[in-house]
Input
Amino acid sequence: MGLTKATAHRYATALRRAGLLRTSHGLYSLGPRVVELAAAALAGLGVIRVAEPYMLRLVTDTGQTTVLSVWDGEAPVVVRVAENRERLVRVVVTPGARLPADSAQGKVFRTFLGEGDDPDLESVRSDQLAANAVVMEGVTAVAAPVFQGAEIVATLALVGTSAGIETDAHSTMAVALRDAAMGLSTELGFVESRLEAG
Output
C-alpha cells in the first residue's frame, strides 16, 4: 500500500479500537464489529427479509436445498440457505460463499446485468433459468432471477445431486423455481412489462 510502518500501525490501532480488527500472537484478523456491520448491510437488502417463505416452500415442493444469492459487484454471494433437514443425505451450502461466474447463479446475473457476449446466455434470458454442474462434481444447481423494479437483485437456486436436480426448463422443479422467483419479485415491486420493454 505504500504506507510507512508508523502510518500502518496508527491505522491498525484505530481499526482495533473501533472493533474492526483484532490481533492475536502478532496476526491480524477481522474484528467482531465487522459482523455487526455485515448484518446491518444485509438487513438493508429487502430481498433477504422477504425471501424466507418462498425458500421454505421450494424446499417443501422440491425436497432440495434452496439458495438465495446476491451480486457483490464481481460474483454471486450466498446470503441465505434453506435445507431439507429430513433428507438423510443433503447438499450443504455455506452462507457467505462466493460462487464462480460460470455457476448457474453467475450465468443468471451475467445475463440480466448485461455482462459478456456469451450466446449461451440468450437461453437463460428466454427461459429465465440457468443450470450448471461446475462448482462441485456430482452437484448441480438451477437458478432463476429475482427482480426489484426492473433490476435483478438476487437469484433463487435449487442445489442438489446431479441425479436429483431437474435441469430441463419445463420440468416440475424448474417451474416451481421460476414461480417462487416470480412471486418474490412481485412482492419486491417487479412489473413484468418493464423487463420486456428493457
Observations:
- The chain is about 40% helix and 25% strand.
